[in-house]
């Protein structure tokens, strides 16, 4: 019970950290981009990842976590793919309307469910599917306004959805792979922190190279020619510091839960950002937004409830299987330890394992 309680506490902590840090960085970045005019999102993301890597390197030197070697090609592939997905999402926002971009983000959940079902043989109950449908419907009502379609934007959105889903599934697979016995090829079990530390440089490098080009394409401005005032620098530093918590909690949530749960959490953060924007920044808000958020919250509650119920059921089934295996193993052990049994003549048999001259009888 202690181990299960600790796992649930760690999961709740990761989810809470993800929500708080994500909402904080959205508010900070909105002030940086809307009020101060720094609109270079992809380049800023590359700085976020670079600062995250430096922070984790300091933590490694302080021995707060252990560096575990891992397949460099797998980590490099994951890092580059994740960096590409971030760039494609930014391009999707640039070449599509805001409404279509929100539809792109909504499509990530059904795409993830489809890929996990087909390639990982993961099963989603009807209750989970229903709760996800309610959630997506609510977020769609709250966020999707105009749906202006164009061929280039649609292709970019499709690529963004696919790369995002694959990157998150690969990450979850890497952090969930168990160490096998010596008869099977060993796989390293890496924590979220270890994988983030090793993949962050590749993500940062991918976005650092492509970021200025993508930002120039989307904004018609040069990030290196921007007027970096002290106020802009302060907000950039603040954004980078918050991003350490965002990136860490993102990897932590996917590692402790699943890619689908992380996407559900992302839509919760979208609803919170809308609410905070209305309360703190006085953004326009309508009854449609309020109704959509309420519907989305109902879907999230159902999803959390059904996930908890199914998780408890799986835990009970696993524990019963373990007890059954122990019972099956205990019977022959008792027979071996007590020696043996009775032969046909009524004399006690001597166990062969205890025969001191067994080699002489060979």
Kindly report how far apart the N and C termini lie.
51 Å
CA gyration radius, whole angstroms? 27 Å
Counted up, domains total 1
Order of helices and strands: HHHHHHHHHH
Main beta sheet: strand number and arrangement? none
Mean pLDDT across every amino acid position = 75
Number of strands: 0
Q: What structural class should be given to the helix and strand makeup?
A: mainly alpha
SS strand fraction: under 5%
What does this structure look like?
The protein is an all-alpha fold and 362 residues long. The two termini are 51 Å apart. The protein has helices spanning 2-35, 41-61, 72-95, 98-119, 126-143, 151-176, 192-219, 230-256, 259-280, 287-337. It is 75% helix and 0% strand. Residues 177-187 and 332-362 have low confidence and may be disordered.
Task: Summarize this structure as a short list of keywords or feature phrases.
362 residues, mainly alpha
Question: Concise description?
Answer:
The protein is mainly α. 75% of the residues lie in helices and 0% in strands.
What's the SSE blueprint?
Blueprint: H1 2-35, H2 41-61, H3 72-95, H4 98-119, H5 126-143, H6 151-176, H7 192-219, H8 230-256, H9 259-280, H10 287-337
Helix pairs in contact: 1-8, 1-9, 2-7, 2-8, 3-6, 3-7, 4-5, 4-6, 4-9, 5-9, 5-10, 7-8, 9-10
